TrEMBL record:
Name the UniProt record assigns to this protein: 6-phosphofructo-2-kinase-domain-containing protein
Shown stretch of the complete protein: 311 to 528 of 541
Keyword annotations from UniProtKB, A to Z: ATP-binding, Kinase, Nucleotide-binding, Transferase
A single cellular component GO annotation: cytosol
Top-level taxonomic group: Eukaryota
GO MF entry, a single one: ATP binding
Species per Swiss-Prot/TrEMBL record: Lobosporangium transversale
GO biological process: fructose 2,6-bisphosphate metabolic process; fructose metabolic process
Keyword Transferase: yes
Keyword Transferase attached: yes
């Protein structure tokens, strides 16, 4: 695609409580971010249409127009689905996919970092020492590298796409996708700053990737 928009979901109830994982709904503030996101993407599309019209008026038509659709991909979790609630399914090709789910924290799902440190001090320490390789214990528990693996098919699909794309996902998946798109060393990924309510626009260009960052100001 010409432009890949990437964001985490709006603030969830668990974000406020400092709990990891789970499937909490959005807070009122998180919902307002979702509404702002839908307005913003709509404006971006309108801008493209206006420049197309002005070019045509001047007598010049682009011969390889960019597809007009914007695909919207979210994870299967409530907080990303709720973030795109205001996107009109007639205007956007909206898909929810498991690939984009947050890292699964096994026995630590639903706990805060403090609780993990208290209940499972050795686990807490192993993760601190080697976050990239550390796999959460318990059924389905994942490591960053597991998530990298699960995202591979999605990255292949993403590179084939010609329409613009908005991905609404989670902290770990954002770190991995941004890390891949910006060619950041794997070892740096687990510590990348990826705040809530921040929208990244990633444009692959011949001389390297251009990234623009938009912060929601309420
Ligand atoms: O707190 C939000 C969250 O997305 C959790 O669900 C997830 O476990 C965590 O962030 C990942 O961040 P880190 O790898 O830094 O613990």
């Amino acid at each position: 695609p010409r432009c890949i928009w990437l964001t985490r979901h709006g603030e969830s109830i668990d974000n406020i409580m400092g709990k990891i994982g789970g499937d909490a709904p959005l807070s009122p503030r998180g919902k307002r971010y979702g509404a702002c996101l839908s307005r913003f993407i709509k404006h971006q599309r309108r801008e493209n249409e206006v420049s197309r019209r002005l070019e045509a008026e001047a007598g010049m038509a682009i011969s390889n127009p960019r597809e007009r659709t914007v695909a919207v991909w979210t994870s299967m979790l409530t907080r990303t689905k709720e973030t795109v609630e205001e996107f009109d399914p007639k205007e956007y090709d909206i898909k929810h996919m498991r690939f984009l789910n947050e890292i699964y924290a096994g026995i630590c799902e639903g706990l805060s970092y403090n609780q993990i440190e208290q209940l499972y001090p050795e686990e807490f320490e192993s993760r601190r020492i080697n976050k990239l390789f550390y796999r959460y214990p318990g059924m389905g528990g994942e490591s960053y590298l597991d998530v990298v693996q699960r995202l591979n098919p999605l990255i292949i699909e993403l590179e084939r796409m010609t329409s613009d794309l908005l991905i609404v996902t989670h902290r770990v998946v954002m770190r991995i996708l941004l890390g891949y798109l910006m060619d950041i060393d794997r070892s740096k990924m687990p510590e990348m700053e990826v705040p809530l309510h921040t929208l990244y626009c990633v444009e692959p260009k011949p001389h390297g990737t251009v990234v623009r960052k938009f912060k929601w100001v309420e």
